[in-house]
Amino acid sequence: MPKSAYERSKGVETVSWREFPLGKGIALAILDESAAAARQLKGQRLLDVLDEAAGLPPCKLTVADRPQRHRTRGGRLELKTYGYYRIAWESAPQRGTIRIYNLTAIRQQVLAPKVFLETLLHEWVHHYDFTGLQLDRSPHTSGFFARIRDLAETLGVGFVTPPKRDVAPSAMLADDVEIARPDALRPGGAPPPQWIRDQVLALFGHRPK
Question: From the CB of residue 100, how many other CB atoms can be counted at a distance below 10 Å?
Fold first, then answer.
């Protein structure tokens, strides 16, 4: 029986390279930047090096000069998103994009350099999972975080990653990944099924197109 995406993700702790990624200088240079435009420029250079060295399709980076998406409850921060990875699953070759927010959620301060770089490496490992390991999901397993550490150490910036930790089953689902499929309810996608059309008709008096 084929292994699940979870089992495969957990079982791989290193990134495989076609050639050694010569990105240490770029990674260290990223730590010197704080402006969104400069981080995007150097971050994209690092992604290009990693993609080429691993034999992956290109991954595009956007650094948004805006606060992190977040949710509060009772005036306190409950959830925040550092960034996310999006894969165009049906495209050929598959296209990956990374978006990172350059400002913190509440105080709207510039994201700390080490946090920014670790987020960039984190999201690139999602790209590696989909386009390198050919997983249909990229869960946050112990193997996933081991691949981030391996990547950081390969680039000589292992100090930006947190220490090894156990991952609770409830934390496995990656909430920073979006998969774009042609049947999604979006412009250009397939029309919604009949049962959704009937519900919309009952609620609003018209059918979705």
Answer: 25
Can you give the pLDDT at residue 208?
46
pLDDT tens digits for range 59-75: 999 999 998 876 667 76
Identity of the amino acid at 63 = V
Short-list 5, 81, 1, 15, CA closest to 50? 15
The region of weakest confidence among 11-25, 68-82, 103-117, 153-167 is 68-82
Instruction: Report the alpha-carbon distance of residue 177 to residue 139 in Å, rounded.
Output: 9
Asked if residue 192 has a cis previous peptide bond (ω within 30° of 0), the answer is no
Interatomic CA distance for residues 132 and 54, integer angstroms: 8
Annotate the chain with three-state secondary structure. Answer: CCCCHHHHHHHCCCCCCCCCCCCHHHHHHHCCCCCHHHHHHHHHHHHHHHHHHHCCCCEEEEEEEEECEEEEECCEEEEEECEEEEEECCCCCCEEEEEEEEECCCCCCECCHHHHHHHHHHHHHHHHHHHCCCCCCCCCCHHHHHHHHHHHHHCCCHHHCCCCCCCCHHHCCCCCEEEECCCCCCCCCCCCCHHHHHHHHHHHCCCCC
Q: Which residue has the tokens 């290193």?
A: 14
